[in-house]
Amino acid sequence: MWPGFWWLAVFLITFLAVTLPQKSEGSPVPTVEISGFTPRWGASAVRLSNGTVVITGGFSGEDLGTTEIWHPGSRTWTRAASDPQSRTSASAVPLPDGTVMVTGGYNGHYLQTNEIFDPVRNRWKKIASDPVPRGGGAAALLPNGDVFVTGGFNDTGYLDSSEIYRPRSGLWHPVRPDPVLRWAFVAVTLNNGNVLVVGGYNGQTLGSASQYDPRSDTWKTVAPDPVPRWGASTVLLPSGNVLVIDGYHGSYLATAEIYSPLKNTWTPVAPDPVPREKAIAVLLSDGTVLVEGGLNPGGFPSVGEIYNPGTDKWAHLPSSNDKTP
């Protein structure tokens, strides 16, 4: 069984009255303006080169292929073609050619399937499957355009396996595994080209952190997050530091920390006004951070936030296409 899903099922039965939307078949559809973000848990998100944000998949009573685009300039949402593969706890990576790769996830089965979303044509296409089915893993774009995928959970248990996908050849290659088995962790590529991996769960909630060096195919342990957590969100900030927010550890967390790769230290910053687990966080073109979705005791949050690392302040994002200041 998917780790942690028993309490999510109890939560939904006890607290939510969900009207299930019709499943999308994933056929290409015109991009249309919608009233706002679809609240959900375990979605994946990336920022495109034009500054817009693609959010896809997740869970809101059923696993979704729903794909939505946030336009920061106009503060509007549009709906794009749905991922043909409904899934939660997948990973999304922006590729150098402007497309988006979505890998792995869970929809009652642990998935190997990978899709490419073309935001210009508003179409999806299937690519070579990951050799390892996984949900709750993480993926990161490497400086050379390859995609690093690691960790997660499948029918064999918690994973440490790591692979690199090469978009140019369409091939997968195994690399050195993470020294720590982990699921529902975060990963981000640093300015030095290494991938920082933090937190997660493997029978216990983790604060451990490691860096993977793709050039030498080696791992090294770095300072742990002082707040052990799984289901957190992370972004690389313009400063080169890493923001880690929210998550779960006995309760839904709102705590936020910044990790300095140069100093190998963690510093607490202003907490998220809305505690949330398995939300999305994306660095916007102006250096602020968009946070949406997740789960907390109130259900699936419908309100998003913008975090400004320069001022260490949070601001609510309108919950619909309300363009008033």
Automatic annotation (TrEMBL):
It comes from Leptospirillum ferrooxidans (strain C2-3). Pfam families: Kelch_1, Kelch_KLHDC2_KLHL20_DRC7. This is Kelch repeat-containing protein. InterPro entries: Gal_Oxase/kelch_b-propeller, Gal_Oxidase_central_sf, Kelch_1. Gene3D superfamilies: Galactose oxidase/kelch, beta-propeller (2.130.10.80). It comes from the Bacteria.
